[in-house]
Amino acid sequence: METRKVQQTGGSTYIISLPKTWADKVGIKTGSRVSLQPQPDGKLVIDPVHDAPPVRKIQIDVSGRMGDALIRDMIAAYLVGSDIIEVKADRILAEQKNVIRGMCYKLIGPEIIEETAKKVVIQDLLNPDEISIKKSVRRMYLISNSMHIDAIKAIKTLDADLALDVDQRDDDVDRLFLLIAKQFRSILRGARLPDAAETSIDEYHDLRMAAGPIERIADHARKIAKITTYLDGPIPDDVMEMIDKASEISRKIVEDSIDALYNFDVDLANQVIDRVTKLSPMINKLNGAILKMNSYESVVALGTVVDSIDRTADYGSNIAEIAINSAMARIV
Question: How much is the pTM?
């Protein structure tokens, strides 16, 4: 760590000198411009302003890469923050191109700008400065919450179309989750913090941590919706009433955990964690009622539903713990 003494010039302006080794490393010379970003915690981030930042490019040889392996390669290239992803092979098969196009749809920013028999060039057109992590995480929560509501409705009414809609919405949550992960990795490598005026690096870390449980909450909503096709008839009213009640409590736990996170409310976060424990007797009672049903298929299917409701509450508790940590970080 280097220190500098603040000096005054012109009667009203404070100045400091910049470390020469750092200035040379980032390309700052006499006449260069830098941006100054005040942080919520009082720090000031100095960032060099370049007219044309270097383009980050990565090449992927997909020869023999198919299916999930190709998908994982595409996601990895996206997460490292590449501006240009060049996919190449002696010949890119139609099946491989379908996977590549599908991944561009499932990621925020990448667009195919060139395509030949041997090469597909993908450019990330997203400006990271336009994306707020607070809005992204909030959007993830709102989508996952609506998915859970509609998933319960789908099994209640045996609405296969609504169940399919829930399944498709999971892609929207995944897209936001991967975008957040990508931005966070970029910040760890020294990139400028987006929305720095309202979000500190500590808050950014905590919101990134909260995005994980929210993504899994959406997965469980999708899992509940898929059960619709395995039910061989309407769910008994008494069992459905218990499912509705447990679902409502679970969703409220998640809702309050998000409020605690955004408002740095330690008391609310602790209340959320206590409520998760109190949900256990209701879950046990519900499982007992399901076991009394005559249809083995329905018993197995609804057991999955109850497990997903229970896990959703647990993930809400995880977010509440993150909220407590985030609130404490503001005190230190």
Answer: 0.81
Burial of 196 (0-12, 13-18, 19+ CB in 10 A): buried
How many angstroms from the chain centroid is the CA of residue 298?
33
Among 16, 19, 21, residue whose Cα is nearest residue 5: 16
For the chain, how many residues are written? 332
> By three-state DSSP, how is residue 213 classified?
helix
Which residue(s) pair with 9 in the sheet? 13
pLDDT digits over 150-160, tens only?
999 999 999 99
Sequence-separated (6 or more) residues with CB below 8 Å from residue 53: none
pLDDT band with cut points at 50, 70 and 90 for residue 191 = low
What is the Cα–Cα distance from 94 to 102, expressed in whole angstroms? 12
How high is the pLDDT of residue 195? 64
CA distances (Å), origin 244, targets 251, 258, 329: 11, 21, 37
Q: Cβ neighbours of residue 176 under 8 Å, at least 6 residues apart?
A: 108, 136, 137, 139, 140, 143, 211
Q: What is the pLDDT of residue 297?
A: 85
User: Cα(309)–Cα(279) distance, rounded to whole angstroms?
Assistant: 10
The residue that leads in pLDDT, 63 or 151, is 151
Among candidates 50, 102, 325, which has minimal Cα distance to 209?
325
User: What is the phi/psi pair of residue 239, to 5°?
Assistant: -70, -45
